[in-house]
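Need a sequence for this fold. Nothing fancy.
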């Protein structure tokens, strides 16, 4: 079956995800360890975290569906930071929840979290809608074109990208997506009928956005 994997080995075009306990001094925690708990992974598929041994065999660490792999014991102190393979079974948006617990040297329970990490596993489809105001106008009057852009499984925050507004093949204007929408106002539409379209293109400079999110276009909006 297909998998979507963020690899343990660094790949410059992908996020390199892991965790670190290097800042925790030795002797502060009982046993010099913490427990990393995967509390949940809400999304369209499963999440499996695993490392590989020197000959490439998998070492399972955490699983969103296997109760025996809900926690991972991590040593603390200098030199202890970890990368893993993050394997997802389906594309889409995920909320992955972690919590860290430990016991202090004096026996006190300590910890941090829960913390939600949002993952966008691509490609995720988008939808673009177009509205035009006023419903009609005289030549030379201002007309506002507004695009609403959303994802099939929309992540927190707005999608990064640009909407190009078209009148047939001619560009009317461009605007960045902010809070899921973009708009332009023009007074340059000529007298007559127009076929208006909004096209969303993900921002190629945004980390991961161009690979994880697909562009989309609205239907044609006839305008006079």
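Here you go.
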């Amino acid at each position: 079956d297909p998998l979507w994997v963020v690899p343990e080995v660094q790949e410059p075009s992908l996020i390199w995800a892991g965790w670190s306990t290097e800042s925790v001094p030795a002797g502060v925690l009982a046993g010099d360890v913490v427990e990393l708990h995967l509390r949940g992974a809400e999304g369209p598929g499963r999440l499996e975290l695993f490392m590989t041994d020197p000959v490439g065999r998998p070492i399972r660490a955490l699983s969103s569906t296997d109760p025996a792999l809900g926690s991972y014991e991590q040593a603390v102190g200098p030199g202890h930071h970890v990368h893993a393979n993050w394997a997802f079974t389906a594309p889409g948006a995920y909320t992955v929840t972690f919590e860290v617990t430990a016991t202090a040297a004096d026996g006190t329970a300590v910890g941090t979290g829960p913390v939600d990490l949002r993952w966008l596993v691509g490609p995720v489809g988008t939808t673009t809608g177009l509205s035009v105001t006023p419903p009609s106008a005289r030549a030379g009057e201002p007309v506002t074109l507004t695009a609403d852009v959303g994802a099939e499984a929309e992540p927190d925050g707005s999608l990064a990208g640009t909407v190009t507004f078209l009148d047939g093949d001619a560009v009317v204007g461009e605007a960045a997506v902010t809070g899921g929408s973009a708009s332009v106002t023009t007074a340059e539409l000529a007298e007559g009928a127009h076929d208006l379209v909004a096209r969303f293109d993900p921002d190629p400079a945004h980390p991961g956005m161009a690979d994880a999110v697909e562009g989309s276009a609205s239907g044609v909006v006839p305008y006079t």
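For context: Helices lie at 209-212.
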